[in-house]
Prior knowledge:
- This protein has helices spanning about 5-25, 25-60, 80-90, 95-105, 145, 160-165, 175-180, 225-230, 250-265, 280-320, 325-330, 335-375, 380-410, 410-415; strands at about 70-75, 110-120, 125, 130, 135-140, 150-155, 170, 190-195, 195-205, 210, 215, 220, 240, 275.
- Helix content is about 55%, strand content about 15%.
- Strands 1, 2, 3, 4, 5, 6, 7, 8, 9, 12, 13 and 14 form a 12-stranded mixed β-sheet that branches. Strands 10-11 form a two-stranded antiparallel ribbon.
- It contains 14 helices and 14 strands.
- By secondary structure, the chain is of the alpha+beta class.
Amino acid sequence: xxxxxxxxxxxxxxxxxxxxxxxxxxxxxxxxxxxxxxxxxxxxxxxxxxxxxxxxxxxxxxxxxxxxxxxxxxxxxxxxxxxxxxxxxxxxxxxxxxxxxxxxxxxxxxxxxxxxxxxxxxxxxxxxxxxxxxxxxxxxxxxxxxxxxxxxxxxxxxxxxxxxxxxxxxxxxxxxxxxxxxxxxxxxxxxxxxxxxxxxxxxxxxxxxxxxxxxxxxxxxxxxxxxxxxxxxxxxxxxxxxxxxxxxxxxxxxxxxxxxxxxxxxxxxxxxxxxxxxxxxxxxxxxxxxxxxxxxxxxxxxxxxxxxxxxxxxxxxxxxxxxxxxxxxxxxxxxxxxxxxxxxxxxxxxxxxxxxxxxxxxxxxxxxxxxxxxxxxxxxxxxxxxxxxxxxxxxxxxxxxxxxxxxxxxxxxxxxxxx
Length: 419
């Protein structure tokens, strides 16, 4: 390392120490200036941290759909538009099991066409134990085990005979097992759902919770059994179609839509009376909803940072005035303009960075508190932390230039005369 490079490093270090000393000397004035930067960074970091944490959890939940899967259902996955929109979707014809079976027969590209019918708010009993009346009972066909992310943990899945002969068998989610079978292996036991006796033939691997909502509080039965005992109400089926691979995803979707429009007798030019749901679509819808929060945080941050930048410029100009005689003495003993400029620029940047760091730390903590309250995963948004540090550095640099140039341009004789 050359002497010049060493000298520049010493200059920067000395400028940094002088900046920190200035902050300590003018505590109240510095704190008030730092607040503007801190509030600006806090507003955007807390929003971005919250959204990133929630998005990570949601994407994990959406991953349950499968990257090559197409869900077809009566209602949109994310409902907007209030009562009028709900009535519009409610008035659609239900999707039926028979339509799902015809769809499978008419299409060639899907690997599987899963069909399911389900209803919540049911009570499951075993001997003297009973669950809360919030268990979801779902009837499925064999293809649903291919299309979905069900993983058998113990026992077995359904056989073709179970479906064809409507055998009273079931597979349990882990919440049911924890509640009813604390000391007994559930496989081979008999449970009761709405006075219907079902034999347990297996259990599913635990999935955990999303936003505090359990994904394991369910009972799966053959779809033929569901239709026999629970299918009398106004219900719409859900179709879970799996494409062979990502390359055939669009072609599979087009074939499925065309076949289903034919099955449901939708006239050419009319819109679909069913919803297509995919991983990418759900994530896109979530991003569309959150972009307004991001925009609001950005506007608040920009206003706060501009106000804070003006505050930094003001405090630096005051600092130049207060230290005019000091600047004159330094120039008289040989200090160059670049040295004076560097000193005041570093001071402005340090002032901005201290406020920025406070805002970033508070934003990350606040965002994760929001995430925890919503039962989402904790996250540190590294991209936004780095962006925040770069922005605060830029604010200090931009708004510190004029005071630094003014300080370096003082005439040493006039400065020494200043009282």
